[in-house]
Amino acid sequence: MLDNIRIVLVNTHHPGNIGSAARAMKNMGITRLYLVQPKNFPSFEASQRASSASDVLKDAVVVDTLADALEGCSLVCGTTARLRSVKWPQVDGRECGELIHTESEQHEVALVFGRERSGLSNDELELCQTLVNITTGEAYSSLNLGQAVQVLCYEILMASRKNTVEPVAQEPVDEKDTLATNDQLEGMYNHYMDALTDLNFFGKRNPEHIMRKLRCLYGRARPTQREVQIMRGILSYAQGRRTQTPEK
């Protein structure tokens, strides 16, 4: 459902781009806008560029961190202007539309756009489970923020129009068996970092490299809330055993 989809803009510099993004969203039936530390908002220029989408701007949620904007989401797709060497799943715009539509039928989903000049940082991309790259012509691949939002929101809308079959009624699912949210996953990653540090696991290994591998692993696995609880229970047990074992 389109109501379960958030468009997240990170550190947008030009207020006009926020307005253009809001207009692009409303054109495609998506209305939930989150702004992470915008440089200038609210502003007259943003309202002017939004045209009849002023309601999207009025209801926009302004937050201090990307993690705040992603709270409660089970899937986060981050846009990137270039294909990355990291092992995150990477999709094109059409695949992104299908993925977000399917996920949003039952869960909260976020589509994240970075800064106009530099995009999303590596740390911000690590909060995403999937990276999105919009296919363009080879001669000139640059899209402005409003264009990028328009393209991907269009793909989401078209995916929703293709899948209009009435869903089959299903048995109620225990909340703990639903997919873990982004903030629950981040809590688990922080727990991993603390536990592995306590256990002296890292040694000469690079903690950032190992944690990135764990993020990739769980990003592919898409664990449930119950599975995250189990993993955190194992980590807590290992930490407890460590404190009970005398140093030799």
Automatic annotation (TrEMBL):
Keywords: Methyltransferase, S-adenosyl-L-methionine, Transferase. Its EC number is 2.1.1.200. InterPro entries: Alpha/beta_knot_MTases, RNA_MeTrfase_TrmJ/LasT, SpoU_MeTrfase, tRNA_m1G_MTases_N. It is an enzyme of class 2 (transferase). Gene3D superfamilies: 1.10.8.590, 3.40.1280.10. GO terms for cellular component: cytosol. It holds the Pfam family SpoU_methylase. One of its GO terms (biological process) is tRNA nucleoside ribose methylation. Residues 5-154 form the tRNA/rRNA methyltransferase SpoU type domain. GO terms for molecular function: RNA binding; tRNA (cytidine(32)/uridine(32)-2'-O)-methyltransferase activity. Belongs to the class IV-like SAM-binding methyltransferase superfamily. RNA methyltransferase TrmH family. PANTHER family: TRNA (CYTIDINE_URIDINE-2'-O-)-METHYLTRANSFERASE TRMJ, TRNA/RRNA METHYLTRANSFERASE. This is tRNA (Cytidine(32)/uridine(32)-2'-O)-methyltransferase. It comes from hydrothermal vent metagenome. The lineage of its organism: unclassified sequences, metagenomes, ecological metagenomes.
